[in-house]
Design a protein that fits this description.
The chain is an alpha+beta fold. Helix 7 runs parallel beside helix 8, helix 13 crosses helix 20 and helix 16 crosses helix 19.
Length: 720
């Protein structure tokens, strides 16, 4: 049982032998264990734990309660532990045979560590994944997870493997599982497992599997769940060489206890064993033969392998010969590759992607800019991929980072911007694994930059056109006005006052933000951060129904009247479901199909993009974002698709007065007050980053209210 990802409560219970009352004082002592009786037992480890450190460590960071009953005891006994010590003598308690350990207020004495664990969903997911692996590995043992979520489960423990897989991963997976087995007397190991029947990687069935469910992979060595990539590699190699993939793979390797060392990592998730290379190679040969027999493919003969080896050697020699040609210097190769751009097709989205082969990193300190606050021209030019790792001691990297610091420096009063968001949390890693930006005051994930993650570059022709449109339509005079102006104050969330020279201007700030966030979306394409929606993620179908009902009472929302029809809502949900990968990969809008207990599988929105740090958009506008993705986006036209989605995102981030709360907060889902947000975050960013388009001059976006020079003349005439 678990609450708040284990921070509030984490309870583990079993129906084992139980703990003697006399042993309670030693339960949370360091290095106290009942698993070892003599030193030689270390050579034949068959239990999960043996060092006596887990409970001791837990009692130092949480409040631990243990209730245990042996089969021959009349009642159970309980004890409370703190810092490894029993707080009071044990006392009788109600309890079943076995042991129940409850940890509450995890990291109560380490506030910094506790604050870092704000994403309860990630912690809960790791617990779920762990129990899932053990439940599938041991169908003869009943496992249960309770956290009051849709992921709760319980297995019967009757030894029926198929029922367990069907219950946890679905009938489609369970029906395709086939066993594998290898027993080697020479190397003294036994390799067993179960995999789903391999399918071709390029089939529509595999694409559908990736959209609707996740793959499962687990490795157990001597009954212990471990991370063992070297055991995964031969399986991957054999499948990739044949363009195959499997959705389910559960492997188990049994090795003589004297030939394996589990005392490598504190979590015992890593192991080392003797004759590793020989074991892996034998598993590879077995699995290759297994796949060939399964599909009726001929075995690869030694002659074929020898021929492939010879071809690889010839290829290496050819590469060496080309490298000796003196005319092809690094500079000449760079010049050639900059003109040679191969077009490849993106099979999922139907878009053409151009890739450049120039891996050389550009050096910013060789560029000349007269104003450090100006946007750099390379934001509008599509470049080849480059890596920008932090922590490089070279002078070149130091200069690069210093220039970035000048570019993005911003003074903020963090005490006034205490963001009390309860529903939204920053998403790291998705999975991560993919978002970074040079501008730290924009909404990209800075942790990825520190980990050396590559900034994703795209060379879509349509993206180049959209960026060129932003640059070519820029008004230099308005740019100078905004950049050198002084912020006076806010009239309301959609209107602000600035001073330029001797003139006072009123700006339609909502229009500026709408264009500004569109520019961010285009220039930071595919590199946004994201906010994860916690608690109950909203259903797409519910939001469409909401705005459909809204169109009946408000003429301003008449365009959404089509969503009154349930059939239309179903079709709209299916339309978004077909493009979830595009929306998440390029725009950080994550939608997932979920099936709640007893309900139909529905599409939920779980993440939205983050364009600016310290700014959570008004989530009341989320239904309108969904509606715009359905009504305004032409998914078959690349340029119009990118442009309309970026416009929809910009509309979501634009401030609107109707959603400001009575406490003058941005919205009911955000604790930030709108005035400090505009003054300390949005306006400084607009001054440094915004590129005003020329048509703003004729659209009354900038309205001059007064000029002190003209006022002086009026006073002078009055005085005379």
């Amino acid at each position: 049982m678990m609450q708040n990802g284990g921070l509030k409560t984490l309870q583990v219970s079993d129906n084992g032998k139980g703990i003697e009352r006399e042993d309670f004082e030693l339960v949370c002592e360091r290095f106290a264990t009942s698993k070892l009786q003599k030193f030689e037992d270390l050579m034949h480890m068959k239990t999960y734990g043996f060092r006596g450190e887990a409970l001791a460590s837990l009692s130092h960071v949480a409040k631990v309660n243990i209730v245990s009953k042996r089969a021959d005891a009349k009642c159970a006994y309980q004890g409370n532990f703190l810092d490894g010590k029993l707080l009071a003598p044990t006392k009788p308690a109600a309890g079943k045979n076995g042991t129940c350990i409850t940890a509450t207020d995890l990291f109560y004495n380490l506030p910094t560590r506790r604050n870092k664990m704000t994403t309860h969903g990630e912690e809960a997911k790791m617990v779920y994944d762990t129990l899932l692996r053990f439940a599938i590995h041991r169908p003869d043992v009943s496992f249960a997870l309770h956290q009051n979520q849709s992921s709760d489960f319980r297995t019967k423990g009757d030894g029926n493997f198929r029922d367990v897989v069907c219950n946890l991963l679905g009938r489609d997976v369970a029906d395709t599982v086939i066993p594998i087995s290898l027993d080697s007397n020479r190397l003294k190991f036994k390799f067993t497992g179960k995999i789903s029947k391999p399918i071709a990687s390029a089939t529509s069935k595999n694409a559908q599997n990736r959209k609707t469910s996740r793959s499962f992979f687990s490795v157990f060595i001597n009954g212990r769940s471990v991370r063992c990539d070297i055991l995964k590699h031969p399986i991957d190699d054999v499948l990739q060489n044949r363009s195959l993939c499997v959705q389910f793979c559960a492997l188990h390797l049994e090795i003589d206890e004297t030939r394996i060392d589990v005392n490598v990592h504190p979590t015992k998730s890593s192991v080392i064993f003797l004759e590793k290379e020989e074991i892996i190679e034998e598993i590879r040969e077995y699995f290759e033969k297994f796949i060939n027999d399964l599909f009726g493919l001929p075995d690869r003969t030694e002659a074929v392998k020898e021929k492939e080896k010879e071809e690889e050697e010839n290829e290496e020699n050819l590469k060496f010969q080309f490298s000796q040609i003196p005319i092809l210097t690094t500079q000449s190769i760079k010049s050639i590759e900059s003109f040679r751009r191969a077009s490849t097709s993106n099979s999922e989205n139907g878009f053409k992607l151009k890739s450049s082969a120039d891996p050389k990193k550009r050096v910013d300190h060789m560029e000349v800019r007269t104003d450090a606050k100006e946007r750099k021209i390379d934001e509008f030019v599509v470049r080849g991929p480059m890596k920008r790792p932090r922590g490089n001691d070279s002078d070149e990297e130091d200069v690069f980072e210093n220039l970035d610091d000048v570019e993005i420096q911003m003074t903020q009063n963090t005490t006034e911007l205490d963001d009390g968001v309860s529903m939204v949390s920053m998403a790291s890693g998705l999975g991560g694994d993919r978002r970074m930006n040079e501008s730290q005051d924009l909404g990209e994930d800075e942790d990825l930059l520190e980990n050396g993650t590559t900034y994703r570059e795209f060379e879509f022709e349509s993206l180049e056109i959209l960026r060129h449109q932003i640059a070519s339509s820029a008004s230099l005079s308005l740019r100078e006005l905004i950049k050198t102006s002084t912020f006076v104050g806010s009239i309301d969330p959609e209107t602000v006052l600035i001073q330029f020279g001797t003139s006072l201007y009123m700006l339609k700030f909502s229009e500026i933000l709408r264009e500004f966030f569109y520019q961010i979306s285009i220039l930071s394409f595919g590199n946004y951060g994201s906010y994860r929606l916690e608690e109950e993620t909203p259903l797409i179908i519910d939001m469409l129904e909401l705005i459909g009902e809204l169109s009946e009472t408000d003429e301003n929302y008449k365009a959404f009247s089509i969503f009154r029809d349930p059939t239309t809502r179903e079709e709209a949900e299916f339309l978004l479901g077909e493009h979830v990968e595009l929306l998440y990969d390029y725009f950080a809008i994550k939608m997932e199909w979920m099936c709640l207990e007893g309900e139909k599988r529905r599409l939920h929105i779980t993440e939205i993009p983050s364009l600016v740090h310290h700014y959570v958009p008004q989530l009341e506008k989320l239904p309108f974002l969904v509606a715009s993705l359905i009504l305004d986006v032409e998914y078959d036209d690349e340029q119009k698709c990118f442009q309309s989605i970026c416009r929809a995102i910009a509309e979501l981030f634009t401030l609107h007065s109707p959603f400001i709360t009575a406490e003058k907060k941005v919205s009911a889902f955000c604790g930030t007050h709108w005035k400090p947000l505009i003054k300390q975050v949005l306006m400084p960013l607009v001054k440094r980053k915004f590129i005003p388009p020329e048509h703003f001059k004729s659209a009354d976006i900038f309205v001059q209210l007064a000029d002190s020079h003209d006022l002086y003349k009026v006073f002078e005439r009055c005085g005379s």
